[in-house]
Every structure is written in C-alpha cells, then in structure tokens.
Design goal:
Layout lengths: L3 E5 L15 H8 L3 E4 L2 H12 L12 E4 L9 H9 L4 E4 L11 H10 L3 E4 L5 H9 L6 E6 L4 H18 L2 E5 L5 H11 L5 E6 L7 E6 H9 L11 E6 L2
Parallel strand pairs: 1-4, 1-5, 2-3, 2-4, 6-7
Antiparallel strand pairs: 7-10, 8-9, 8-10
C-alpha cells in the first residue's frame, strides 16, 4: 500500500518560532517523516531544524533524505521522487515559503501522485495569496492569481491593462507577484497603466512582524510615488492586487 504525501506549509519569512503560523499538528506530522521533497534542500533542512526545536525529529537531521524538485527538474525525474511512497513510506512536500503546489513546482508531483493513487493530505499553514485577499478589502468572492507579469515594460503595461479589463468585466480581483527587487517597478507600472479609480493593494511581508498592507486607487498610488511616499517593500515578498471599479 502506498504511503501518504503530506503537503507541508512553510513560514513566509524568518521567524523565531513556528507556533504563530503553523499548527502543532503540522509540526508533529513533519517531525515524524524521514523523506521530503523540497525546492531547495538547504532551506528545507533549516525548516526541519526549526521544527526540531520543539518536536524531536524522527532521525538526526543529517540522516533525513531530502530530494530536490525545482524549475530545473526534468519531468522524467518525477517518478523517482515518488518511489519511496510507492514502497509504502510517507513523505512530505515542503514549500520554500507558504503552501506547496501553489505558485510552486510541487504541483506536478502532486498530480503524478494522484495518478498513482497515492493519498495526498494538504496541511494548514500560511498562504500569502489568501492572506492578501483577506486584508485587501477587494472582492474575495471571485479572484484569480496570475503569477509573474512580463519584465518588458511595454508588455507588462499591456498585460496589466488586460487584467484590469478582465477585473472590470467579471468584477474579479486580480492577484500577481513580482521578484522582490522589482517591487517598485511593478507598483509604478500598476499606478501608471490602470485607470485612476482602479483599486490597487500592496501586501508585503504577510504574517511577519514587518507586515504592511495598503489599498489605494491607482491615482492615489501615483501621487504617493511622485511624493516619494511609496511603501517600504524593497526586496520584501509582496503580493499585488487590483480591482477595477
């Protein structure tokens, strides 16, 4: 009988303790596993070390097996990652930050697990996308995550305007993310490309002590940026949301 694939959330940033963002059950399940699939083995070990401060690990950290799954992993390698599960061992899929398989290469492994009738158990933890929707004041009944936009300025502007039109026609909140060092460029693009009344939310460092969430119209963001009063979000993980009025 195959093992169970546990989808294990991670923190959204450095934290002294896990108890404020991860339930005890999640930490307990994690501590009992000795095989993990993670985007980066080094950061996964740091996460397990933090779990081990309150929940003794099943094995010494150096004996726990961690296989990597990231954007460079060829599809043909996925089957090997599932081999221990097919042999009856439980495993954990760990995200770099937040929940696995959402804006995360782990989704391909989860799909393959279903094809092999492997039980998949998602565990509770922080999702920057849902936290951003909750705190934005925008439409939480209908929303869509669009990932990263083009880095080319003209293409990015075109894509923003397409999303704004979709938001207007469907009354749907549009979510997107950016590489943290390009946050300022993204907000400038949103403020400049959107109609003045379109609501734009900037949600930074969610669940962390430096958390900041602010929703303004595109016109007010444009004025704030012109006055050098933009958000403090350089190199900080940020979710951007828009809702056309």
């Amino acid at each position: 009988m195959p093992g169970t694939l546990y989808l294990i959330p991670n923190t959204l940033g450095p934290t002294a303790t896990l108890s404020s963002v991860l339930p005890e059950q999640v930490q307990d399940i994690t501590s009992k596993l000795d095989y993990f699939v993670a985007e980066n083995a080094k950061t996964a070990r740091a996460f397990l070390k933090l779990v081990g401060t309150t929940h003794p690990l099943a094995r010494p950290l150096q004996e726990i097996r961690i296989s990597e799954l990231n954007v460079n992993t060829p599809p043909a390698a996925l089957s090997a990652l599932l081999a221990p599960l097919l042999e009856g061992h439980d495993a954990g899929l760990v995200s770099e930050a937040g929940v696995p398989a959402v804006a995360d290469p782990g989704a391909d492994l989860v799909r393959l697990a279903h094809q092999h009738d492997i039980t998949v158990r998602p565990l509770v933890g922080p999702s920057s996308l849902l936290l951003a929707v909750m705190a934005s004041g925008l439409n939480g009944q209908s929303f869509a995550f669009n990932g990263y936009l083009p880095t080319d300025a003209a293409q990015r502007t075109k894509r923003i305007q397409q999303l704004e039109q979709r938001s207007r026609s469907e009354r749907q909140t549009q979510l997107l993310i950016e590489t943290p060092y390009r946050n300022a460029a993204m907000l400038e693009a949103l403020a400049g490309a959107c109609q003045p009344g379109t609501l734009v939310c900037v949600a930074t460092d969610l669940s962390l002590p430096t958390e900041a969430v602010r929703t303004l119209t595109a016109a007010k963001w444009k004025a704030a940026l012109a006055a050098n009063k933009g958000p403090d979000f350089h190199k900080k993980p940020t979710v951007f949301l828009l809702l056309a009025q």
